[in-house]
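Predict the 3D structure for this chain.
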Amino acid sequence: MKFKSAAVYSAAMLTFVTSVVAQQYPTKPLRIIVMNTPGSGADIVTRLIAAKMSESLGQQVVVDNRAGASGNIGSEIAARAAPDGYTLAMITSQQPNVVALFDKLPYDLVNDFAPISLLASAPYFVIVNPAVAATTVKELVALAKSKPGSLSYGSAGSGSAPHLATEVFKSMTAINLLHVPYKGTTPALTDTMAGQIQMTVLVAPLVLPAVKAGKVRALGVTSSRRSALAPDIPTVAESVPGYEWSGWYGLVAPAKTDAAIIQKLNAGQNQAIKSVEFKERLAGVGAEPIGGTPAEYGAHIKTQLDKMKLAIKLAGVKVE
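Done. Predicted structure below.
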């Protein structure tokens, strides 16, 4: 009986202490790990939400870029971080792609993370260097078929969203393109602008400034509907029926992070994305706010995993 009483007392004290810690949280700066290079779409969106969450939480929120290995480096660091609410991670549409592609990874996307909230979504754009003799998706497909393997495309590495988006496009159009993997999306865009590679498929926040400046030509948007930010650019599906690919962003914490802390972070993020200023800034980089509950985001991640596994199987994509 004494042992049982002691165990009950210890459990009660632990619950009390945890509750107090959660109520006082946060008491120091937070960091958000981004699995992409500075200047990438994920980096841009993360910095926007970090600034707003700093205001709502009353603590500085810093961005920690950990690019490389298709996001696996940053994902493992985030998964192994202390579950105290001070290390978060920006999970994007890239992570389910990677998990679906690789047989073994040092982390589990579902079990090693606690979802906070889906933040925003953004379409991708098929872009080419202005010197490429194609002004539409149909012309690009025709050009690629006339010169099999002569056109090269860049990605953020094997298994990254740009890689899989393009491989699915290749599969659906029966064309042959040369894959050139980079260590991030920004270098892929830079070399597309420079003409070192001919094309790439990248998320809107990263490419729209280059499109508007005339440094690259956008042939199509990958979402199911035309983007309000570039309504004159047709969807890829208008030329390739059934093609759809969208980017998304959402925050997670390491698994076992206290539920009260998760709820506080969720409230802070949802409060941040409701502001008119934040919505306008997101729109300026080609993204749309979403929000929601941790449970909704967790379900979204699982759905995306299933979708990517099917897409990879259909496209026959292999790790290079």
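The mean pLDDT is 90.
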